[in-house]
Design brief:
This protein has helices at 2-19, 21-42, 165-177, 182-193, 199-211, 214-225, 265-271, 287-290, 300-312, 316-330, 337-354, 374-384, 386-389, 391-394, 403-419, 425-443, 448-456, and strands spanning 139-141, 148-150, 229-239, 242-250, 255-260, 280-283, 295-298. With 464 residues, it is of the alpha/beta class. The protein is elongated and about 110 Å long.
Length: 464
């Protein structure tokens, strides 16, 4: 039966060739192009494209890091500052160890026989319990009027019973820094302190922290507008069962997040920073960024991965261009910027020669743009935006990659894997603001818990 089917198919193809030879040839060539495209797509993985590592499945490609060997031995380097325990000058508790007799001879020993002391220190967790402070406001009766008055309670004692600011900061620390789900925070508090904290209490602590960070958001946004170089990226999140986008703007010292239902220009406008930004924005060529009136810099790590894909397909120009970009990054002084550009453009010509493309004639009624091969799209992008791609050669402050932004949005994926999606937009926006503050504190070497405790008292760090 299979042989009969093949013979019938060949006969039909011959008849079609006699009736419309050009149409059949075009169809065959189109199918060949489609087969090549599908085969190339099967070869895409996290090493040669923007696909995440989780999509590789069990057939993961061998890791090929772009980093080069430093020549140093593994482990701690000579001259580094260690992080071992340091002796406490004033220990909290001293436990003396006396002897009544010599362990060897059995001779009796007295305090007058002590000639020296050998000490060892053990650092241990204290017994954990919440410290309860009771505020007592004495009630006075005014002699002239008989009215009763009392002193005002402090801010942290507005209710008859409540948790303090530092405990609220601890709850925010667990949820928004360590990504522990609310139920597990509740269980942790019960196990450690003996109090089963309600999820409403945790949510209220987070809302209070967010409200007290309004000035931090304003100051950080204003500072980002004036930076010479800012990194931008976005990543998908799940909010109320739908896809939302966490947008990130950052430098090595500042971070600001914004979560939005949209990914493009509306979200950029809503964040309210980039429309007024005049420095250089480093990104991965997401088109809405190109509409901004500022300088641009393209993440070359993305371009290197795309070139690796065509290198895997046997295109030598892509391999050589990838090596050129990596060498220009590690050894920029070997050539002048103009010499690097000439070599860059020669390789683009080789790429065009290797991937010739002529748009097919449009059929009657055909609309839209003509699809181009993936290689041609990449070559045209490298050709049209070489100033942005090679900006690191002309401006030492411009980085080769957008790794800063990549690192700043990575925590969102970790949070989603641990705690799942956000059940409300309010909760997602609270997370974005608090996490902006935490990320900035980490970059500024400010202890996160102490900074959150200040924020709970409306004394947040501003990093102006």
């Amino acid at each position: 039966v299979e042989g009969d089917y093949e013979r019938e198919k060949r006969e039909l193809l011959k008849k079609a060739m006699r009736a419309d030879p050009d149409g059949v040839v075009d169809a065959i060539l189109g199918l060949e192009r489609r087969i090549e495209e599908l085969e190339a797509r099967l070869k895409m993985n996290s090493r040669n494209s923007s696909k995440p590592p989780g999509s590789d499945g069990y057939d993961k490609p061998s890791p090929k890091s772009l980093r080069k060997r430093s020549g140093r031995k593994s482990g701690g380097q000579k001259g580094r500052r260690g992080s071992a325990l340091q002796r406490a000058d004033k220990p909290d508790k001293v436990e003396p160890i006396f002897l009544q007799r010599c362990p060897s001879s059995g001779v009796e020993l007295a305090p007058s026989n002590i000639v020296d002391v050998i000490s060892r220190q053990v650092f241990e967790l204290p017994e954990t319990k919440l410290e309860v402070t009771e505020y007592q406001a004495y009630v006075y009766e005014v002699p002239a009027t008989g009215a009763r008055v009392h002193g005002e309670f402090p801010e942290e004692a507005k209710a008859p019973l409540q948790y303090g600011f530092r405990f609220h900061a601890w709850l925010v620390y667990l949820v928004d820094y360590q990504f522990i789900p609310l139920r597990r925070v509740r269980r942790m508090c019960e196990d450690i302190f003996g109090y089963a904290v309600g999820e409403g209490t945790i949510s209220e602590a987070r809302r209070r922290c967010e409200a007290n960070l309004a000035e931090f958001v304003r100051v950080t946004g204003a500072k980002l507008k004036g930076e010479a170089v800012v990194h931008a990226d976005e990543t998908g999140m799940r909010v109320e069962g739908k896809t939302a986008w966490l947008h990130s703007l950052s430098t090595s010292e500042l971070t600001l997040y914004h979560i939005d239902p949209k990914r493009g220009g509306d979200a950029i406008e809503a964040m309210g920073i980039l429309p007024e930004f005049e420095g250089r924005l480093i990104h991965d060529f997401w088109k809405p960024y190109l509409a901004l009136d500022c300088e641009h810099g393209i993440c070359n790590a993305h371009i290197v991965r795309e070139l690796t894909f065509f290198e895997d397909l046997g295109q030598s120009w892509a391999k050589t261009l990838k090596e050129l970009l990596l060498q220009a990054c590690s050894e920029p002084s070997v050539n002048s910027p103009e010499q690097w550009r000439r070599r860059y453009r020669r390789l683009l010509k080789q790429g065009y020669k290797r991937n010739p493309f002529e748009p097919p004639p449009r059929k009657q009624g055909q609309r839209g743009r003509v699809a181009k091969p993936k290689a041609v799209n990449l070559l045209e992008r490298l050709d049209a935006h070489d100033d942005w791609i090679l900006a690191f050669l002309d401006h030492p402050g411009v980085p080769f990659t957008n790794n800063q932004a990549e690192q700043d949005v990575r925590m969102a994926k970790i949070r989603q894997k641990i705690s799942g999606c956000f059940r409300s937009w309010e909760g997602s926006r609270t997370f974005a603001i608090i996490r902006s503050y935490i990320s900035t504190c980490i970059k500024q070497d400010v202890p996160v818990f102490d900074a959150l405790a200040k924020a709970m008292r409306n004394q947040a760090e501003l990093f102006a």
